[in-house]
């Protein structure tokens, strides 16, 4: 684990401290994963923007909390065209759980990403998912070992980066799926130009995901034009102030159909 967290926002330091104390699983995970690149290709073939829609009850940067059944929400997202889902399993700050991920993955046929702050090999064994998020900044020199450990269990690692140095570390670690986070974890500020700066250096055979700050169809088109193979969209779909399930489906469709919308 990278322990140089002094520049991080207090909320992020709190999340990492809680994650460091969280136990891992009681047995070794063995996953038969659904392929994210294949799901993205199927969405493209169907004329949809490949979107990973996120089941996120709450977060330190979101007001309010969604109390709807996450399985029902996930189903509406898939109906709206989501190529894959992301499920928060961090309990203290995001209201997630491994039980929620298990229920969602059992209910859908698309790849499911486990989004959490995983800091050790044992954390990988807490629950089976198709993909696991590995954040380069927090793993530091441990990143290659965690990428390998994830693959040994059948997971597809999605390695998250924010700048060129982290991208280099991700590629050196063998990452085949990379997410560029537009949110600066030091200040929790969002800047979509982050993706535009980092994306050109990513090898063409790497599946590239744009994360955070994608709130409109125009944002989706901007990220796609900058090279994103897919988009991870959370708050703009969930609408933590309490949108109905139908709105979740409609919100998802706004992004999956972003490239067919007529400009105003």
Query: What is the rounded Rg?
Result: 17 Å
Spatial sequence of strands, sheet with the most strands: 1-2-3-4-5-6-9-10
Structural class: alpha/beta
Q: How far from one another are the termini? A: 47 Å
What is the count of DSSP helices, taking H or I runs of 4+ residues?
12
**Bulk shape:** globular
Structure description:
This protein has 264 residues and is α/β, with parallel strands linked by helices. It has one domain: Alpha-Beta Barrel (TIM Barrel). The chain has helices spanning 10-21, 36-45, 70-79, 91-94, 98-107, 136-139, 143-152, 164-172, 193-198, 217-225, 235-238, 245-256; strands at 51-55, 84-88, 112-115, 131-135, 156-161, 177-181, 183-184, 189-190, 207-211, 230-233. The strands form 2 sheets. Strands 1-2-3-4-5-6-9-10 form an 8-stranded parallel beta barrel, surrounded by 7 helices. β9, α10 (217-225) and β10 (230-233) form a beta-alpha-beta unit. α3 packs across α5 (98-107) and α3 (70-79) runs parallel beside α12 (245-256). The chain is globular and about 45 Å long.
């Amino acid at each position: 684990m990278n322990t140089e967290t002094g520049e991080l926002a207090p909320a992020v330091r709190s999340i990492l401290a809680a994650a460091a104390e969280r136990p891992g699983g009681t047995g070794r995970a063995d996953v038969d994963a659904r392929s994210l690149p294949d799901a993205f290709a199927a969405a493209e073939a169907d004329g949809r923007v490949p979107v990973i829609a996120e089941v996120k009850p709450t977060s330190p940067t979101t007001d309010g909390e969604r109390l709807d059944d996450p399985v029902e929400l996930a189903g509406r997202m898939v109906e709206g065209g989501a190529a894959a889902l992301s499920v928060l399993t961090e309990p203290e700050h995001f209201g997630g759980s491994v039980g929620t991920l298990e229920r969602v993955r059992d209910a859908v046929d698309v790849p499911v990403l486990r989004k959490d702050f995983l800091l050790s090999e044992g954390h990988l064994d807490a629950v089976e998912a198709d993909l696991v998020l590995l954040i380069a900044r927090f793993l530091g020199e441990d990143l290659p070992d965690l990428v390998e450990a994830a693959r040994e269990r059948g997971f597809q690692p999605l390695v998250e980066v924010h700048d060129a140095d982290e991208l280099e570390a991700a590629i050196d670690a063998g990452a085949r799926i990379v997410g560029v986070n537009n949110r600066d974890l030091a200040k929790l500020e969002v800047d979509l130009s982050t993706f535009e700066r980092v994306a050109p250096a990513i090898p063409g055979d790497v599946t590239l995901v744009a994360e955070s700050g994608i709130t409109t169809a125009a944002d989706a088109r901007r990220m796609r034009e900058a090279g994103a193979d897919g988009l991870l969209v959370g708050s703009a779909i969930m609408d933590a102030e309490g949108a109905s399930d139908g709105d979740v489906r409609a919100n998802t469709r706004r992004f999956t159909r972003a490239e067919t919308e007529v400009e105003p």
